[in-house]
Structures are given as structure tokens and as C-alpha cells.
What does this fold into?
Amino acid sequence: MAAFETHIAHLVRSVSLSELTKHLEFEMLGMRRFGFVSGQWLSFKQVKPDGEELTRAYSIASPPGEDPRFALCLNRVQDGFMSNFLCDMQAGDEIHCQGPFGDFILRPPLRDTIFIATGTGISPFRSMLHWLLTDQLRHQGKQFWLVLGSRYERDIYYHDEFLRLASERPNFHYLPTLSRGSVEWQGLRGYVQEHVPGIAQSRTDMHAYVCGLDKMVKANRELLRSLGWDRKSVRYEKYD
Ligand SMILES: Cc1cc2nc3c(=O)[nH]c(=O)nc-3n(C[C@H](O)[C@H](O)[C@H](O)COP(=O)(O)OP(=O)(O)OC[C@H]3O[C@@H](n4cnc5c(N)ncnc54)[C@H](O)[C@@H]3O)c2cc1C
It folds into this structure.
């Protein structure tokens, strides 16, 4: 089997998105441009203190550009090694990675699309939506819905950014929903799948992309099937 090339990425910037979540910006060393397709992921490698080499996948959370940069959005997982290692990195620190990999990418022909995510499952959709919405030739005036779920308001990652994008792009509809929102929260409540029928019912001419933990992905796939959607119109990426 052909070995994949290993890249060295160094951390340029680390921003806290919540108590346990970070937005990390990296630059690939020795590259003029890092090519990937929105929705793809990288495999990060690190040797643990006991000598075991660990690899973990992380979706790219930024759109492809003309530079060697990319971003990640990641959660600290309790007792997890790689997520905490990455979250603890300081500007200038380096890590090895391979990729890009994966075929969780926008499937042609482009249709009206619903993106469904919880937590850091937003990563590939942040990349896809920024890529699509910067250029009319890419988005072709299609309608895009982002149904983004979290427990509390403080855990809706990139909230202001998506609010701004929705105010600038009439074909982008941003629907954050909270399962444990405070009394002040004026937006949607409940789980993401509760808000999907309002968009997807009676529509078999759309695509859906679902990203997050297994339970949520399963619930949304089953729901779309029950609404009469063709299996091929639904793509998904599971993080666990
Ligand atoms: C294609 C792909 C893309 C991914 N992209 C992202 C991403 O963009 N951002 C991100 O934060 N994560 C992402 N993940 C999850 C990531 O790869 C790791 O599984 C996660 O960071 C935990 O790794 P760890 O080494 O810290 O913990 P581990 O040592 O692997 O796990 C510790 C414990 O946490 C549980 N666990 C594992 N993963 C999760 C999880 N995601 N949430 C809650 N509990 C978990 C395990 O069952 C185990 O009990 C992605 C996974 C895949 C397969």
C-alpha cells in the first residue's frame, strides 16, 4: 500500500469558542498552497508519553484558499489524548498530519441543501458554506439551511459569524436550536431533527448533509427516510 505523505503543520492562532472548544488555525510548513475540498478531514499523529503512536481525524473547518492555511474546530473530550493535546497547543507548536482525506464533500449537481450538525460537527459545514457563499457561480442562487444544535447558547460555535452571513446572503438560512436554552433564548428549541421536517417535508429534490455524533446522525437519517427521501440524497459523517 502506498504510504501517505506526512505534513508538518504549525499552530498560528488559537481561539476559545467555549469553555471546552477551540478554533485552531494552522499553516502547513513548506507549502505555498494547501489544496483540499470542503468537507474533507486530516489525520493527526502524535506519540503519547507511553510511546504509543495515536492518530485521530479532524474535519477542516475553513474553506480552501490560495494559502497553506487551514482551521480546526475541536472539543476537549474527557480523558481523550489527541483532543486535549491539540487544545493545549501554543502558537508556533508543530504537529504531524496526513491528508486531506474523505468524500463527505458537496455532491454535484448542486441542489437546495440542508446542513444538520451538532457541536463540532459544524466544522465541515463552516468550510462548505463559506466556500459556496462567496461566489454566485458556486452557489447558483440555491437555498441553504444550517440547522445547528447545542445544549446552551454559549456552545453555539461561530454564532455571530453565521448570523452575519445570513444577514448578507438571502439564500442562507441559519437555524440554531438549543436543547437546554435559558429563558432569555428567543430562537428555536429542541433537537435538530425536530426542525428538519419544516424544511425537508415534501421535498425530494434537495440534498442533506449530516455531521456529528452517531446518535444524532442516525436520528436524522431515519427521519429523512420516513419523509420519503432517497438514501442517496443524504450524506453523513460520524465523529464517534
Ligand atoms: C472523519 C472524522 C472527523 C472528525 N472531526 C472532528 C472535528 O472536526 N472536531 C472534533 O472535535 N472531533 C472530530 N472528530 C473526532 C476525533 O477524531 C476524536 O475522536 C476525538 O477528538 C477524541 O479523540 P481523543 O484522542 O481525544 O479521545 P479518545 O481517547 O479517542 O476517546 C476518549 C473517550 O471519548 C469517547 N469519544 C471519542 N470521540 C468522541 C467525541 N467526538 N465526542 C465525545 N466522546 C468521544 C471515546 O469513546 C472514549 O471513551 C472526527 C472524527 C472523525 C471520524
Notes: Residues 41, 56-59, 72-75, 77, 79-84, 120, 123, 237, 239-240 surround flavin-adenine dinucleotide (CB under 6 Å). The chain has six helices and twelve strands.
